[in-house]
Every structure is written in C-alpha cells, then in structure tokens.
Specification:
Radius of gyration: 26 Å
Helix content: 55-70%
Structural class: alpha+beta
Order of helices and strands: HHHHEHEEHEE
CATH architecture of the largest domain: 2-Layer Sandwich
Strand content: 15-25%
Distance between the termini: 75 Å
CATH superfamily of the largest domain: Histidine kinase-like ATPase, C-terminal domain
Shape: elongated
CATH topology of the largest domain: Heat Shock Protein 90
CATH class of the largest domain: Alpha Beta
Strand order of the largest sheet: 1-2-3-5-4
Length: 238
C-alpha cells in the first residue's frame, strides 16, 4: 500500500508539473499572438500614415513653396497654388478624420476607383512640372473595398515618389481590368534610381501581397521608373 501511495503521489506530481507547463506554454502563446497582432497593426498604421497623411503634408509643403516663389512675379499663379494648397489641406484633414474612424478614403467615398486615380494624378500635375495622364483599359467592374484602397494607396505612393524625387516630364497611370486580374501601372520618365527603394515601396509590396498579388519595380538611373501591381480578382467579384 505504501508503494502504491508513493506511485500515486509521483504520478500526481508529474501531472501537476505537466499542467503548470501547459498553462505556462499557453500564456506564452497568447502573449506571442498578442505581440504579433500588435506589430501587424503597427505596421498597417505606419503604411496608412505614410500613404495618406505624410503624402498629403508633402503636397502642401510643395505647393506653398511654389506659391512663395511666384508671389511677387506671378501673383495669379501664386493665388492658384495657394488655392491648391488649401484644397490639399482640406483633403488631408478629411483623410485624417477618416483614418481615425477607419472609414474609406474620401477620394473613394466620393466616386469610383478610376475617378480617384485620375484625381490623384491631377493633384500631382497641379503641384509639379510633371504632366500626368490617366488611362483606363478593359471593362471597369466593382471591386472589394480592400482592392480599391490598396490600388489607390499604391498610386498615391508611386506618384508621391514621382513628385518628390523623379523630376519627370511625363508620368502615366494605367488601370487595366482583365478577366481574372486587375493591374495598376505607374510609369514616369524621370531620373530613376538604383536599389530596392525605401519604406514606401515596401509598404506598396505588402499591400499587394496581403491580397495575394504582386508588385514589381523597374528602374535605373536616368531611365525612369515603372511600378506595376497585379491583384487576382476574388471569385465573388462580379
């Protein structure tokens, strides 16, 4: 009986230790999942801030600098640039409010994706010396909100790089609807670059990959830059 009780005690102790180990492992897993979710959310917020608020503030700064340059010699041009800056500030404020409330971007809430892309190009053309053209290919169709948002943000990021770094004479934005994919191309004939790019390109690539798509970048010094994002259409898309 004594041996039996000792065996039962040892077995009970092993079970207690095993339960404590399992509880500890579960708590560590919960903490790890919480940390992973927090990091993913932080990355998502960083992308949103970079693609919206930071881009908008850059636009406002460029417009105000141009207005100051023209203030004395060309007051009419300066007035037009100030009006553009005021509109950009209003759009940025709306983006900030929508960002806080997790709503769709105002550009998409007010119209279709092609219209939003055209407006992004017009904004860049208004504040730089770059001529931006928009082209639509294929039959437009309704896309999930996540697709509209990703394509708009990629266009904003790519054209933002054009405005700040490319010194391009021409840029072209093309949205193409195919049978099973949607493709967005942004090309400029600017100075180009050699390397992998910074946070902006990484954020664009992550947006595409989150939807099962791909993003490619072709550029070389003096040969312009081409950014293309391809997203597979989901089965439920009409």
């Amino acid at each position: 009986m004594a041996l039996a009780y000792q065996a039962l005690h040892r077995e009970s102790e092993r079970r207690r230790l095993l339960i404590e180990e399992l509880v500890g492992t579960r708590e560590r897993l919960v903490r790890a999942e919480r940390d992973t979710a927090r990091l993913a959310e932080r990355e998502r917020l960083a992308r949103e801030i970079h693609d919206t608020l930071a881009q908008g503030m850059s636009s406002i700064v460029l417009l105000l600098r141009a207005a100051r340059r023209d203030l004395d010699a060309r007051p009419a041009d300066a007035e037009r640039l100030l009006a553009e800056a005021e509109r950009a500030a209003a759009d940025n404020l709306a983006e900030a409010r929508a960002f806080v409330r997790e709503l769709a971007p105002p550009a998409l809430a007010a119209g279709s994706l092609p219209a939003a892309l055209r407006r992004v190009g017009d904004d860049v053309a208004a504040r730089t010396a770059t001529r931006v053209r928009f082209a639509l290919s294929g039959s437009p169709r309704a896309l999930p909100a996540a697709y509209d948002l990703a394509l708009l943000r990629v266009a904003q990021g790519a054209l933002g790089n054009v405005a700040r770094h490319a010194a391009a004479a021409d840029a072209r934005v093309t949205l193409t609807y195919l049978d099973d994919t949607v493709v967005l191309d942004v090309y400029d004939d600017g100075r180009g670059f050699d390397g992998t790019g910074g946070f902006g390109l990484r954020a664009m690539r992550e947006r595409a990959e989150e939807l099962g798509g791909t993003l490619s970048v072709e550029s070389a010094p003096g040969e312009g830059t081409a950014v293309a994002v391809t997203l597979p259409l989901p089965p439920e898309a009409p």
